[in-house]
TrEMBL record:
It comes from the Bacteria. Keywords: DNA-binding, Transcription, Transcription regulation. The keyword DNA-binding applies. Residues 1-58 form the HTH lysR-type domain. InterPro entries: LysR_HTH_N (IPR000847), LysR_subst-bd (IPR005119), WH-like_DNA-bd_sf (IPR036388), WH_DNA-bd_sf (IPR036390). Pfam families: HTH_1 (PF00126), LysR_substrate (PF03466). PANTHER family: HTH-TYPE TRANSCRIPTIONAL REGULATOR, HTH-TYPE TRANSCRIPTIONAL REGULATOR CYSL. CDD domains: PBP2_LTTR_substrate. This is LysR family transcriptional regulator. Belongs to the LysR transcriptional regulatory family.
Amino acid sequence: MQIKHLRTFTAVASALNVTRAAERLHLAQSSVTEQIQALEADLGAILFDRSKRRLRLTDAGRRLLDHATDLLSLADEARSAVAELADQPSGSLTVGGLETLCSSLLPPVLTTFCTAHPAVAVRMAAAGSGELRSGVRAGDIDVAFVFGDGPPEDGVERATVARERLSIIAPPGHRLAGRNAVARDDLADEPFLVTVTGCVYRRMFDEAFPVAGVGRPRLAGEFGSIGAIRALVAAGLGCALVPECAAAAATGLTVLPWVGEADHVPVSMLWRRRRVQPPGLRLFLATVRGGIGAIRPDGGHRRCAERTR
């Protein structure tokens, strides 16, 4: 068995789709198919059931997946142990994050890291929280940044690297414009735009405005992205509760600091637990702790717009 074939197999097993696996691996679909066929020929077993529209793992495929994850982890650790001897770390590093964090918090840290370690090829991937977590567990993403603490996950390390203040964004000329801050009572029955249930941004809203709480705003609609919500707020459809760095990207809107029990949200960094971390990842984690530490996880920090300039 070749390591590259096992990596391709785990990518296909995770996506259950050759096209998506090929995009994740930056390979042609034909190459992915050839590698899976070569692995099946090597093992003398069919790994995927191709009889239906969606790929499914066979019993042999499920059994191999359990071992493939361990084998790939050991291969990474072996490579890392040898790389420790190199003067200049190299290799690749995939950094994932929510779109809001990729455009605000991460660029300064990536700039610092890439300047100090130019031989490490860095790739940034923006995705949702669930996709980021599964990517870390599968090894497709080396380190990811999400909002919220979340429950412990097997094989995944977690550290809170910042606390982001929450803000209310409102249409230009809103009745609350000019306020230093707003609280729940100021927003009673105000139309609000939210993301769908289960989204981390929706969780922020639900924690700030409990269903049974007094003064809960009126939901004016559910939308798929913070970018769409910002545009609709600008059009006058309603207000929204967003992290400060998302508010900083909103030009021409009324931005008001939110004051309440849930007025901050943690920013968490996730990475796989390994006996030996790849040098690039180990150095990146150190850079984050040194760079994002300036945001002061104790709650006091500068505006996100100031951090990214």
